[in-house]
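seq as requested:
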Amino acid sequence: MGKHHNPGFLKLVEAARATVQECDPAQLSQRMRTQAVTFFLLDVREDHEYADGHLPGACHLSKGIIERDIEKLFPERDTALVLYCGGGYRSALAARSLQAMGYSDVTSLWGGIRAWRAQGLPLEEDVT
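struct tokens:
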């Protein structure tokens, strides 16, 4: 999705993608509009990326700390979580990690915020 990644990283991501549920921006946007099932949207990017703009209603829990802090925020392992990053790579890896921790309803947004933006979908900015 516009960035060059090393082969070893891409292999790791593809292995993660094979084991996690994914959605695309249109599917996530529809899910956000209908709210048929309550879910939490987690931005796993770095602090400065989140501050530059994020999906509406997203909580920030960067990939670097998600395993450490997820249980404090979401102790119920069946909580529905949708993760996203810049292009879907970090979120796929984080989703696989959460599954390994026992979280059973984790989805990764393939294409990430770049695909979201490309479709002209709304963003929020951090106002701190």
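The chain has a mean pLDDT of 93.
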